[in-house]
Amino acid sequence: MPGVSLVAILDLKGKSLIQRSYRDDVPASAIERFLPLVLEQEEEGSYVVPCFSSQGINYLHIRHNNLYLVALTKKNSNAAEILTFLHKLVSVLTEYFKELEEESIRDNFVIIYELFDEVMDFGYPQTTESKILQEYITQESHKLEVQVRPPMAVTNAVSWRSEGIRYRKNEVFLDVVESVNLLVNANGNVVRSEILGAVKMKCYLSGMPELRLGLNDKVMFENTGRTSRGKAIEMEDVKFHQCVRLSRFENDRTISFIPPDGEFELMSYRLNTQVKPLIWAEALIEQHSGSRIEYVVKVKAQFKRRSTANNVEVFIPVPDDADSPKFRASVGTVHYVPEKSAFVWRIKQLAGGKEFLMRAHFGLPSVRGEELDKRAPITVKYEIPYFTVSGIQVRYLKIVEKSGYQALPWVRYITQNGDDYSLRTNVHAPKTQAGAF
C-alpha cells in the first residue's frame, strides 16, 4: 500500500497534542484543517465520514475518548488498512498507559515519539504487538529505556511471540464468551436478536508451541463429511487474531496457530439466529390519579434448571420527577437510581426456570398525561457461567511443542447480556383512584 505521510493525535478542539511526520509530501500545517473540515460536514447535516479529501490530501481518522487519531496521505492508499492501524495504535498506547486520554499523552511525549518510530517506518505499518514493543521500549516513572538490539520477534515471521519463553507449569485458559443482543416489542415478540461470540485465551506456555483448536463448526462437518453427535453451529463474520493460519482454516476449517504469550482474543464471530430471551422481565404499571404510580415487576429465567444466572440487574424506567420510592421484593435488593430515571432490581443468583415478583411505589409531584406509554424499555444485565446460547463447543485443543512437555488446557463457557438487551414489556393498567402499596 502507498504509505502514510503523517500521524497525529488531536484533542476535541482540533489542537495537535503530538504528531509524527514520516514523509515530506504533506505539510505539518495540514493537520490544522482537520477539525474545520469535520465541523463543515456536521453543519451540512451529514454524517462525519472516517475518510475524506481536501486540497489533494486524504484525511483518515478515528475517535477514542476525547481524542482524534488522524492519518494523512497524498497517495491512493488502502483506507481499511490505515484505519485498522489507527485502532491498533490505540490498543498499543492503552496497554502502555492504561487510559489513553489527553493527560496521559502530555505525561508521556518521549515514549509516544519512540513508539511512533517503531510502529511505522517511512509510512508503512511495522510492529504493533504491544507485548513485543514492551520488551525493548520500557516505561519507568515516565522515563524511557531502550535496548540497543530489539528482540528477535520484531524480525521473525512470528512477530507476536518472543523466543526463549519458559514456564514451570505450562497452562492454557480458554474462555468462550457469548453476548446476546435482542429487542422485545410491547406484544412480547422478539423483533431483533443476535449472538456475538469471542474466544479469549491466556497462554502460559514454554517455547514456540503449535496449537490446534477444533469447534463444532457446521461448515467443517459438511466439508469433511463427518457427522456431529451434538449441534453444529454456522458462524458468520469470523475474525481471527493474526497468529491464526488463515490458509489452513480456509482449506479444512482447522484453527491452527502459534499463540502470543499471555492474554489475547483468538477469534470473534456472530450468529444471526433467533434467540428467545434467556431472562424475561415485564412490568405492570398502575397510575393513581396522577399523584402516584405503582409497578409490579416479574422476572423469569427461561433457561435450563441446571444453570444459574449471576449478578442479574433489571433496570425499570420511571418518570423523571418520581419521588418517595418504596420497594418490596421476594428476592434480591431494589434501589432507586434517579440520575438514570430508573430503579434497579439486583438478584445475586437466579436459577433456571425460577420466576420472582417485586413491587415498587413512587409519588408523582406533577400531573401528567399519557407520556408514560413512551417510556424507555426495561433493560437486563446478567452472566450465566458454564453455558452458551449458541451451543458452540470446544471439541479439542491440542498443544504440540518440540520439547514434548505436557500442558493443561482449561475451557470455560460464559453467556452474558450484550450492549442492547431491551424488553418493551411495560404494561399499563387502567388508572384507578384507590389502591394501597
Automatic annotation (TrEMBL):
Compartments it resides in: Cytoplasmic vesicle, Clathrin-coated vesicle membrane
Sequence ranges assigned to domain MHD in this UniProt record: 169-424
Assigned GO CC terms: clathrin adaptor complex; clathrin-coated vesicle membrane
Pfam families: Adap_comp_sub, Clat_adaptor_s
GO biological process, one term: intracellular protein transport
UniProt KW Protein transport keyword: yes
PANTHER family, sorted: AP COMPLEX SUBUNIT MU (PTHR10529)
Name the record gives this protein: Clathrin assembly protein AP47
Lineage: Eukaryota, Fungi, Dikarya, Basidiomycota, Pucciniomycotina
